Amino acid sequence: MTAVLHTDADPGLWCERFGGDTIPAGSKRPALFLDRDGVLVEEVNYLHKATEMRIIPGAPAAVRAANDAGLPVIVVTNQSGVGRGYYGWTEFAALQAALVLAFVKEGAQFDMVLACAYHADARAPFDRPDHPWRKPQPGMIKAAADALALDLSRSWIVGDAASDIEAGRNAGLVGAVHVATGHGARDRDIALSIATRSYLVRTAASLSEAAPMIMSRSG
């Protein structure tokens, strides 16, 4: 079962939840937050065609390992291409469906996907540079935490951009892993500078290398 929260009242936001509404009783769970482009799929400027989607080797296995460990897996992705008018939510949804299916075929599942189309250079009504959902703002992460009863203080994010790493810090996560795929080489120094005494920033070649590092710290 999926539920899409995307209405004319807030045309720049997308939230898709997979599975039922039952949340395990007891203490809140840590989670694994993932950027999409450059982490799950190869970076393609304004990717919106399934024919151009290339899954990064090892990504499905990493997601499956998080599933097996009981960690909810949430995708949080900036999608300024929608705001700029390069493609619409219909194209985004079609590509997401292809991505989800490809991972399911590998035994890997996502718990939620959130996206934000707002950007300073977008067309109206998407021309908002500081929307609380747009990374590095923490809105997508916090919305997922509210919906899934997550413990952000024990959760991690994996991203290739400095904005991913900063979003994790702004949301109160325990740490982040900056990967070398996607824009990783460009943003490595900035990403590492975001670390604080209470917010760990580690590096990895890809999600497949990052996942075991995170799960060993998420017990």
Q: How are the SSEs placed, and which strands pair?
A:
Elements: E1 2-4, E2 13-18, E3 32-34, H1 59-68, E4 73-78, H2 80-83, H3 89-104, E5 112-116, H4 139-148, E6 156-159, H5 162-171, E7 175-179, H6 184-193, E8 200-204, H7 207-215
Parallel strand pairs: 3-4, 3-6, 4-5, 6-7, 7-8
Antiparallel strand pairs: 1-2, 2-5
Helix pairs in contact: 1-7, 5-6
Describe the structure.
With 219 residues, the protein is an alpha/beta fold. It has one domain (2-215): HAD superfamily/HAD-like (Rossmann fold), CATH 3.40.50.1000. It has seven helices and eight strands, in the order βββαβααβαβαβαβα. The chain has helices at residues 59-68, 80-83, 89-104, 139-148, 162-171, 184-193, 207-215, and strands at residues 2-4, 13-18, 32-34, 73-78, 112-116, 156-159, 175-179, 200-204. An eight-stranded mixed beta sheet has the order 1-2-5-4-3-6-7-8, with helices on both faces. Helix 5 links the parallel strand 6 and strand 7. Helix 1 (59-68) packs parallel to helix 7 (207-215) and helix 5 runs parallel beside helix 6. It starts with a strand and ends with a helix. The model has no long low-confidence stretch (mean pLDDT 93).
In a nutshell, what does this entry contain?
The chain is α/β, with parallel strands linked by helices and 219 residues long. 32% of the residues lie in helices and 17% in strands. The protein has an eight-stranded mixed beta sheet with strand order 1-2-5-4-3-6-7-8, with helices on both faces.
